[in-house]
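Margin note: ligand = 4'-deoxy-4'-aminopyridoxal-5'-phosphate.
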Amino acid sequence: MMAIPDENLLEADAPELTASEALYNRALQVLPGGCSRNTVLREPHPIYAAYGKGCYVTDVEGVERIDFANNMASLIHGHAFSPVVDAVNDQLKRGTAYTLATEVEIQYAEELCERVPGFEMIRFVNSGTEAVMCAIKASRAFTGRPKIAKVEGAYHGTYDFAEVSQTSTPSNWGEVDKPASVPVSFGTPRSALDDVVVIPFNDPRRAVQILEEHASELACVLVDLIPHRVGLMPATDQFLAAIRDWTSTNGSLLVCDEVITFRNAFGGAQQNYSVRPDLTALGKMIGGGFPVGALAGRHDVMSVMDPLRKPLLFPHSGTFSANPITMIAGSTAMKYFDKVAVDKLNVLGDRVRKQIEEAIRLADVRACVTGSGSMFRILMKQTPPENYRDAFANDDEVARLKFFLDFMFANGVMLISTGTGMLSTAMRTSEIDWLTEVVLDGLIEIRRKFGQ
Ligand code: PMP
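Resulting structure:
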């Protein structure tokens, strides 16, 4: 005879799932790995957001945390910034995309071109990946050359060519004089790898030597001025000048990826250098919290996308490119990120790095802090790295960082999984002081668990 389950007993025995656990179980059925972006994964399960306001995010369990991730550096004013919410609400009522152009895309293009001396023309796209892809395709179209060069380990999104060497390891990265073109995705065509030349960061002599071997074939050299995966150290003047000189002399273009670093100065991180790129890829912050990318630069180079020109060298389109929601959100966000706001945020950045340095000293543990402007990164290394190979974490450093990030999260602080933090204008010194107190506690715990 079949036993009839006692409902009361079943209920009592069933383990209580938290709201996030229950959501993750559902997600696992329909999303590969239970997520739409790997960044949100945590062990043993992701935590789901309910709402955010300013620099705080509350999850579906009702736990509030301070947000130093800011959606991977894209929320310059934190969450639900009122001027953006109001501007977007106004536009929402009038429609979100029309198969017609809008005035707001012209207005926002004018504002960005006024902001940066080298932005003569601009085209909006929908992500940083697409912006970098378009910069590469525009460079190929302009020069008629197939290859690009990029810095070892630098992250530029997921276009086949741009992602080469992003995840190189000591077992496959090759000689320092000739870094290997290592694929990220299984099945990347050999031809794509052969068309990417990898150079070491902040090593002008080696970089130029490598570029020389491909002098007549390179459409562009792609450089992030403060590459986060490479250690979040700024490019040196000498490195950038060497690349600028080499590209100008050899008929190649200099492309800066400012998808993240545009926050570093009113005119982007490029404002801090005496040389100008030919093209700049933008994204993240300039969308005011909505999906965005953009490609900006020299008039003659941007003209390869001009459909009035015959022959059209680089036909480009995108269903949601320059949609009015993103345009009004971005324009409003950037209006509030004026020179005064940028400077104020960078002062806060100096404070956070100084205080973290002090915390490291007090905890007497193997760690360092890098970064610039409103960005910081904590690495489990004695001294700041100089390039990707230096920054590469060994097993012990990986374990220490994971322990530290879990500690921070459990104590109410969200950081990016590389140990990176991004400030927003919603933060004040009180939030910075609180962060650094938790950092100190976390570092003391590392020392207790792992030793110096
Ligand atoms: N370039 C850089 C420097 C980035 O950090 C990122 C994203 N983290 C991208 C490009 C790609 O941007 P998206 O995720 O919007 O495609």
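The chain has a mean pLDDT of 96.
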